[in-house]
Write a sequence for this structure.
């Protein structure tokens, strides 16, 4: 038998790509969440943190280099993640050309069923989020020198729809990770029933914690705790 | 009891096919599902009509030939049970029952409810065997096998190749079958020589047949009549990643 395709393009290899890139994104999300929570330490401290991000590695790397390296890694991860997701989704569709006349709803978890559309929602949110708080294009203040002010303006009570969209996106992300975090372990070779129970529990706790960590910021602004 | 069946009828591979409704009266709750279809077929034959084609052989849940999508459930509503072992007492008088063939591009319909599962044979041919001369059964303790491995290998060896996992999978993936046929060998000493070439060969054959990829949704293990656990697929993933990163070559059986 001859080699038919590169291992990365096999159904197993593509899932490994999704798992590795997914984990990279998760690591970023954890750091990003911890950074956000600095908003509770006050305006100067938060702004100081935001500016510090641009200076990491300063003596070794000039200016915002570190930030650009990080951004490149993240973009590559997102593109690879979506590429693998798309190839697998197309293959899954081709694998069942004739649908069942009588089909029960898939019994697996809601999270597992909504991975693909959930991913699309997350992507749309990330684009909006970058235009809002990174470039400032869609932000009512949009002052790069005043990140704290941008955040507070974003989640002001009269802009409740922004908070609503943000909340929906974070909950979607929570579901994505409730299945995704377990699934990534499995894709990378988690193989015992006991480990599976542990991985599922860990994924659930992690997803809830991450959602909570991201949601306290807008709700603190909404309720005036941060202003 | 009296039932209404809606059955997929398709004259041959090229026919478009459609659901056809048949009333069946006086069904005993003690009949098996296939016996109920036999009753329908006898009547169809007497009426000069074409009987419904469906696959079956042992009718005792061990050969893996039977396979019907019953009301959207692979092998019907009872867990851990093949269609042939399903009894009509699982249904109520007056029920309407939809019966369809397995749906997968890798399992083309031959006629009515019969599909061609030759794709599974190709996966087996690509590595689902050992070359170690095993001879007659050796002394049980001459080759020690850890209990956990022996148990897991035995669990996998229970797979009867029915294809329900593919039929139920939202991605049309054959990973549970492939993983079962892989681990029944890879966990035992006899399976070690080809351990890594086997996994590459079988995954390649799986993908080439047009099955989809696994998303760990877990539908397969719910319908599997032999209860092959989902973590079996993790064993396949691990062996595959080890084999491909090691560059273990791609000649199954060498
Ligand atoms: C913050 C961004 C994201 C993170 C942290 C993330 C994380 C993950 C993780 C850890 C997995 C599990 C990988 C595996 O099963 O091996 C996963 C799977 C998946 N992701 Fe994402 N993801 C993100 C964004 C996206 C986006 C933007 C899309 C699509 C447009 C997407 C679509 C998918 C799909 C379809 C799966 C496959 C589900 C499965 O096979 O079980 N994800 N993601
Ligand atoms: S894994 Fe289960 S459902 Fe799939 S072919 Fe084997 S016995 Fe049938
Ligand atoms: S006919 Fe043999 S398993 Fe059902």
């Amino acid at each position: 038998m001859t080699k038919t395709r590169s291992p990365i393009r096999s159904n197993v290899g593509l899932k490994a790509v999704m798992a590795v890139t997914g984990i990279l994104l998760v690591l970023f999300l954890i750091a990003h969440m911890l950074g956000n929570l600095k908003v509770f330490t006050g305006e100067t401290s938060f702004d100081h943190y935001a500016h510090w991000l641009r200076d990491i590695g300063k003596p070794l790397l000039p200016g915002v280099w570190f930030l650009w390296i990080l951004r490149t890694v993240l973009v590559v991860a997102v593109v690879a993640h979506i590429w693998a997701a798309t190839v697998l989704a197309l293959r899954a569709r081709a694998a069942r050309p004739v649908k069942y006349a009588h089909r029960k709803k898939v019994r697996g978890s809601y999270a597992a069923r909504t991975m693909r559309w959930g991913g699309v929602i997350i992507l749309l949110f990330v684009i909006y989020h970058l235009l809002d708080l990174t470039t400032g294009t869609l932000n009512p203040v949009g002052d790069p020198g005043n990140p704290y002010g941008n955040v507070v303006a974003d989640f002001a009570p009269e802009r409740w729809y922004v908070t609503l969209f943000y909340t929906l996106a974070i909950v979607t992300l929570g579901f994505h990770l409730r299945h995704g975090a377990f699934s990534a372990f499995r894709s990378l070779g988690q193989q015992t029933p006991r480990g599976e129970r542990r991985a599922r529990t860990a994924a659930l706790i992690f997803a809830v914690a991450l959602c909570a960590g991201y949601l306290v910021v807008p709700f603190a602004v909404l309720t005036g705790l941060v202003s | 009891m009296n039932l209404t069946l809606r059955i997929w009828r398709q004259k041959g591979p090229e026919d478009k096919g459609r659901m056809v409704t048949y009333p069946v009266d006086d069904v005993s709750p003690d009949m098996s599902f296939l016996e109920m279809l036999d009753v329908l077929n006898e009547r169809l034959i007497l009426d000069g009509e074409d009987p419904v084609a469906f696959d079956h052989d042992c009718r005792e849940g061990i050969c893996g030939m039977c396979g019907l999508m019953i009301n959207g459930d692979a092998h019907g509503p009872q867990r851990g049970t093949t269609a042939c072992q399903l009894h009509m007492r699982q249904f109520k008088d007056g029920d309407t029952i939809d019966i369809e063939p397995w749906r997968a591009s890798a399992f083309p319909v031959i006629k009515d409810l019969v599909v061609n599962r030759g794709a599974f044979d190709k996966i087996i041919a690509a590595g689902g065997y050992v070359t170690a001369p095993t001879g007659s059964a050796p002394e049980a303790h001459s080759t020690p096998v850890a209990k956990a491995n022996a148990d897991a290998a035995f669990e996998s060896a229970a797979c009867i190749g029915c294809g329900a996992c593919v039929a139920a999978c939202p991605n049309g993936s054959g990973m549970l079958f492939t993983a079962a046929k892989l681990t029944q060998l890879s966990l035992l000493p006899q399976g070690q020589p080809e351990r890594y070439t086997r996994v590459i060969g079988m995954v390649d054959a799986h993908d080439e047949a047009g099955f989809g990829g696994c998303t760990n949704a877990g539908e397969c293990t719910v319908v599997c009549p032999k209860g092959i656990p989902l973590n079996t697929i993790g064993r396949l993933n691990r062996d595959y990643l080890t084999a491909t990163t090691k560059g273990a070559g791609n000649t199954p059986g060498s």
Notes: The longest helix of chain B spans residues 231-246. Chain B has two domains: 3-111, 118-246. Helices of chain B lie at 33-46, 118-125, 147-157, 164-168, 175-186, 195-208, 219-223, 231-246. Chain B has a mean pLDDT of 93.
